[in-house]
Fold ATP-binding cassette domain-containing protein.
Amino acid sequence: MIELKSVTKRFGSETAVDAISLTVNRGELCALVGTSGCGKSTTLRMINRLIEHDGGEIHIDGRPIREFDGRVLRRRIGYAIQSTGLFPHWSVARNIGLVPRLLKWPAARVTERVEELMALLGLPVEQFADKYPAQLSGGQAQRVGVARALAADPDILLMDEPFGALDPITREGLQVELRDLQARLQKTIVFVTHDMDEALALADRLVVMKAGRIVQQGRPLELLRAPADAFVASLLGGDDRGLKEAAITPVVERMRPLSPRLLPQARIAREATLHQALAMMFRERVERLAVVDDEDMPVGEISLRGIVGAGLSEGRDR
Ligand SMILES: Nc1ncnc2c1ncn2[C@@H]1O[C@H](COP(=O)(O)OP(=O)(O)OP(=O)(O)O)[C@@H](O)[C@H]1O
């Protein structure tokens, strides 16, 4: 668990982070969003003491981080950044194994771990282990950066735009991998992003910052449904907020039992979102879809009226 209590950071006369308080529970993914220069990266870098806070307290698992040696702390916390920070003269495998080697793991265990992570992140060992960062595409380099952050199996991961500057398909693939990793391994993750769709899709806790302060925090749906002010509303998507809400609301929330009427021909997976259901209705020119399970068996239906007529923000079906 990470706790920030009234944490402040000043650079000269400028207060970059102004008395923020935030708790990120174990296994939670917390996304920090806000306009450029609002203090997101500074907040992240104070957690692993790349930047020292000058007011307030930061605790990790109940202990003030000032009690830890900075280097020891950073070996316990994975850190992935947009520019990857890979060592250019080291191979991919050597880059990924950096922290385990610093922690003096036996060589065979480091190799095993590196290969495990490369497989996890879709980087075939034979193809990539001996390559150098300059020989990688941006997306591959970011995967290596994420693998390196995960190498020593840290409980905490700090990620500063780790998927920035990637094409939408690669980015979405990595988002799915991250969510999967988090669900399986219960990592505590603090994630900085400028991409609101990414923040809404990934975050358990969404934190909106403005000029060094936290303006609002909560579950993405809570913020979409009740933004604290016009700034939050506009940052979260302005007039598009309804669609963004549909993009993170699962179909099963609005699903009804199959009606005795004819089974709808068009089908949608039960894991789909309302946004995907709307897109399919639009594409297929239909107002009802059968919701199907993994074996393509209908488990219910969803209708346009069920989605729109009920009013998304009411959170109930009629
Ligand atoms: N090392 C530094 N020295 C002086 N000022 C700094 C330093 N690092 C950050 N700042 C200032 O602190 C403020 C917050 O910066 P920070 O990088 O945390 O913002 P951010 O929200 O991450 O921005 P962006 O979205 O553009 O990355 C900015 O005004 C920035 O200019």
About this structure: Residues 11, 14, 16, 34, 36-42 surround adenosine-5'-triphosphate (CB under 6 Å).
